[in-house]
Design a protein that fits this description.
The complex is a heterodimer of chains A (about 270) and B (about 325). Chain A has about 270 residues and is mainly α. Chain A is about 75% helix and about 0% strand. Chain B folds into 2 domains: about 230 residues, Rossmann fold (3-Layer(aba) Sandwich), CATH 3.40.50; about 60 residues. Classes of the chains: A mainly alpha (about 270), B alpha/beta (about 325).
Chain lengths: ~270, ~325
């Protein structure tokens, strides 16, 4: 009963956040498009580069672009959901005392923070990612059958959830230190960028990290192999179910880390 | 604990570690074993110099900071452990932060508060109408919060905080930066709220005028200890014993009296201070009239501003603990 009320309150906060961002419809469309185009320029450079070499560790340009499309869409979704917990931004929230105000609300601080700061601009990234994915699939001869669509959706969702979990862990760390832990950006954005390339080009350490610590490879690389019908030569086990399992495990760890962070914050204050 | 105690604190203490994590010597005691009770319906002013422990106490009362030692209950709840439950019964306004939706019309903020505290829609509308009337918010409801003036915004923050009918209202510097008219509006509203709904109000402020005009009881904290807990009148009666006689003399000579000392002179106007405890005003006036020709006389009573400033400076030292609790 109380949980249902809290969920309704968070939904209302999310709607308010969206209304605030959309503002005048024209502006919102323009901003989203701008974000999308910026990303598209990045993509174009990337594809041109890959195209020149004709192959990267045995992957063709369109095949790499497919990886990139999945990763970019996932990253965009993760940011739209959890960007306010990004280390730099969240440190500011704590320092200015806004987090204290969140704690004074009769709902859980994490859902309230996520809902009231939902950032729609990043959906532009999701659109770009999907566009690249569609283009790359066409060039690489991937047919959009039902299972393939489900696999792409699973890949994007897991990638987004992994990124969001890392944001939550970063925010939990910020609650302990009240310092901007910008170093985490290397992990999050670096991680997502690096997983846009085939795992074959990395050494064993990075492969291990992207499989078992930040399971981006399980969420992006393994599903991409299945979509492309490639065997793959390196890295993580080929079990598709590992992606959701690893994602849920990481999300649970993030949840525990968050609780510990809040407890610690209540013990010391800022 | 009496049945009607809304806040009950016993030996409340907060120590922070500064610098080295394991260095015990680097500990700072922000709040040092304070005890007090707040009864339902009281309007309390909580004052103290910067860094005295005011906001640390408020954080412990509102459940966003765990005490190092001591015991506290607020409306029967243990603040940190039952934070969310307590949040339903409590309103908090920070003068320098906003709890409103910055980019949306003010009405949307009230709407969200209604959902957050699960107030039935009809009840919320009635309550909002009443608050809008009291705080003159009607014409502002459709305006984005960011376009409101500071005074308008503060009235809106108050309305949002009391919309769910909290039993207890915490206010942190609610009149900071406001002009005279806006201050008056905020004070009138708080007085009305306290009187008609019986809301218990705890106000931290540097503006002693707020306290003098609103509060039935004053608590002063300094270096983590409660150095005064009682009525404003009691404070003045106990520590504000220095009165000043202002005299306009006919000549240029400076009076030298046995019963009062000259503290200031400007032209032919003289300020003569004396202690009410030892000397009465007629005695000083009689001595003055006997020695000088006087054109005009006025008697100045000490203000709260004056007394508290002298307490902060250490010129007057109330006994620690609950000494001077004239009304408590």
């Amino acid at each position: 009963m109380a949980d249902a009320a809290a969920a309704r309150a968070c939904a209302a906060a999310a709607r308010a956040a969206m209304r605030a961002q959309v503002g005048t419809r024209g502006w919102f469309a323009l901003r989203t498009l701008t974000a999308g185009f910026t990303q598209l320029a990045e993509v174009a450079g990337f594809v041109l580069l890959v195209d020149r070499f004709t192959s990267l560790a045995g992957w063709t340009g369109p095949e790499v672009a497919l990886l990139f499309g999945l990763g970019t869409a996932g990253q965009g979704l993760g940011q739209a959901l959890a960007k306010p917990l990004d280390a730099g931004e969240f440190a500011e929230t704590v320092r200015r005392g806004h987090f204290d105000q969140v704690l004074l609300r009769p709902v859980g601080p994490l859902p309230w923070l996520l809902a009231s700061a939902l950032d729609l601009r990043y959906l532009g990234r999701v659109l770009t990612g999907l566009a690249v994915l569609a283009w790359a699939a066409g060039r690489a001869g991937v047919a959009w059958t039902g299972p393939h669509l489900a696999l792409a959706a699973l890949s994007i969702t897991c990638c987004a959830a992994i990124l969001a979990s890392v944001f939550v862990l970063g925010a939990a760390l910020t609650l302990r230190t009240v310092e901007g832990t910008e170093l985490l950006n290397v992990v999050t954005f670096g991680g997502v960028f690096l997983t846009s390339f085939p795992m074959e080009i990395y050494g064993p350490v990075l492969r291990f990290v992207f499989t078992w610590v930040l399971p981006f490879a399980l969420a992006v690389y393994v599903p991409a192999l299945a979509l492309l019908g490639r065997a793959g030569t390196a890295g993580p086990p080929r079990a598709l179910l590992l992606a959701p399992v690893a994602t849920v495990a990481l999300a649970a760890a993030a949840g525990l880390g968050w609780r510990a962070g809040v407890r610690r914050y209540l013990g010391t204050g800022s | 604990m009496t049945a009607a105690a809304v806040v009950d604190a016993e030996g409340l203490t907060k120590r922070f570690r500064r610098g080295g994590r394991r260095d015990r010597r680097a500990e700072v005691t922000a709040v040092d074993g304070i005890s007090f009770q707040v009864r339902a319906g009281e309007f309390i002013g909580y004052a103290g110099p910067n860094g005295a422990g005011k906001s640390t106490t408020v954080k412990m009362m509102t459940g966003i900071l765990l005490p190092t030692a001591g015991r506290i209950t607020v409306d029967g709840l243990v603040p940190v452990r039952q934070r969310r439950q307590l949040a339903r019964r409590m309103g908090v306004v920070f003068g320098q932060r906003t709890a409103l939706l910055w980019d949306l019309p003010l009405g949307d903020s009230f709407d969200l508060v209604g959902r957050l505290y699960a107030i039935p829609a009809a009840e919320r509308r009635a309550r909002q109408r009443r608050l809008a009337e009291l705080l003159e918010l009607g014409p502002l409801l459709a305006r984005p919060v960011r376009t409101l003036s500071l005074g308008q915004r503060m009235r809106a923050e108050l309305a949002a905080a009391v919309l769910p009918r909290p039993r207890l209202l915490f206010l942190d510097e609610p009149t900071i930066g406001l002009d005279v008219v806006a201050k008056g509006a905020v004070r009138a509203f708080l007085r009305e709220l306290n009187a008609t709904e019986g809301t218990t109000v705890i106000l931290t402020t540097h503006d002693l005028d707020d306290i003098a005009r609103l509060c039935s009881r004053l608590m002063i904290i300094d270096t983590g200890r409660l150095i005064y807990d009682g009525t404003v009148e009691g404070l003045l009666a106990t520590f504000g014993t220095t009165r000043v006689l202002v005299a306009d003399l006919a000549g240029d000579d400076r009076p030298e009296l046995r019963r009062a000392r000259l503290v200031r002179a400007q032209g032919r106007r003289c300020w003569l201070a004396f202690d009410r405890e030892h000397v009465s005003a007629p005695e000083v006036i009689a001595e003055l009239l006997a020695r000088h020709e006087v054109r005009d006389l006025a008697l100045e009573e000490p203000g709260i501003e004056d007394v508290v400033r002298r307490i902060y400076r250490g010129e007057v030292a109330p006994r620690p603990g609950r000494a001077g609790a004239a009304g408590g």
